[in-house]
Amino acid sequence: MRCIGIDFGERRVGLSFGDEIGVATPLEAAVQESESERIDYLVKLAQERKATDLIFGYPYNMDGSVGFKAKEVDVFIDKVLAKIDLPVHRIDERLTSQEASKGFSKGRDDALRRSGKIDSAAATLILQDFLSQNIPLPDYEFDEEE
User: Fold this and answer.
1) Does residue 92 fall inside a structural domain?
2) Could you give the percent of the chain with pLDDT greater than 90?
3) What's the pTM value of the predicted model, to 2 decimals?
4) For the chain, what is the domain count?
């Protein structure tokens, strides 16, 4: 399993990578000018990393329902799938952007925001959640002392 974690945004797409080891790591965000360029960047990254799955953060409403933002993600997913055919998993991303921003300095930092680092940190949290749920812990054998 080789997964790309994706935190969709209208201007930036946060990205992360993880595999069967079970650890998600942030990647450079897709910050290209147009959505089609961001999709092309994502597709190229998935191909280079030999991705087997795409893990999308899915913005459910706080009550668990699917709202407008989730429908925007669905449209983005359809555009990505038109260019690359991989299994898609939607992971609840409620509050991940807030959690991801905790690791960065407080205050308004437009350069940091534009860099996509916070978005990729959010994608890493999303992917780590998926990996933690889907990769079994190894069976360790311990010598029993009698």
Assistant:
1) yes
2) 59
3) 0.82
4) 1
